[in-house]
Amino acid sequence: MGGYMSIRKKLAATKSRLLHELSKCLPDKAYLLYYYKRNMGGGKLNLKRPRSYNEKLQYKKLYDRNPLYTKLADKYRVRDYVKDRVGEEYLIPLLGVWDNERQISLEYLPDQFVLKCNHDSGSVFFCKNKNEFDFTACKKQIHKALHENYYWYGREWAYKNIKRCVIAEKYMEDPRWELRDYKFFCFNGRAEYILVDIDRHTNHTRNVYTRNWKLLDVTIEFPKCDTIIKCPQNLGEMIQVAEKLSDGLPDVRVDLYNINDKQIFFGEMTLYHGSGTAHIIPEKFNYALGRLMVPANR
Predict the structure, then answer these.
(1) I need a surface site. Which of 82, 135, 163, 293 has the fewest CB within 10 A?
(2) DSSP state at residue 174
């Protein structure tokens, strides 16, 4: 039975790879019509008159080709943008940068660190103890990621032309709890809503707040958290940082970490939240976000 299940998994993986390769033959518009329908439970994508937030993100992929987006999506080169806009003190310390996994040497890294690829979403590897870190497995995953263009998965144009590399950053911790991720939804340089992720690696929950820290009865991909989350003491500074980084952009999600309500660190800038297929409940909030977002001109 075990052998049979193993064969089924291999066949499924092979089928997935073949479908992925075949999908590259589709033009962006045709692919996004298929991609949206597949990921939104059969929902039809309206590109002629996009109204919801998710629809406008798909429209953005096709028609908003601002060259700056490539830099913002690049987890290494965006550091220069952050330094220029808000200052180097908001950057997580950089420990190293390499063209490929073969160049990485554990000898020159501290006992704790984070490795990440600069060109995609999800290729992040946390090392809490260098003696227990499976570096061989990590390098295999990095090698695979570096040989894939993340653009093909959701046609997120900003990722298409990123020059790929691997970076190491300082391992960040908050003495109070697991490091919290604050995601600021910014429209035309104004932070309108804040998503707070809790227990991302165990029981992922997410709360949605207004800029005045009012909890909304809204879920975006993950259920609400039962725990009361206090308003950060330095929320004003966080909003200021997010708005400076998003100034001049029609819409962007700015992710920040907040340690001990004293130290704010930049996480990343996301131009296509959930690749435009996040499940937003109630649906009217999807349209409320859409009204804040001005689609790019063709």
Answers:
(1) 163
(2) B
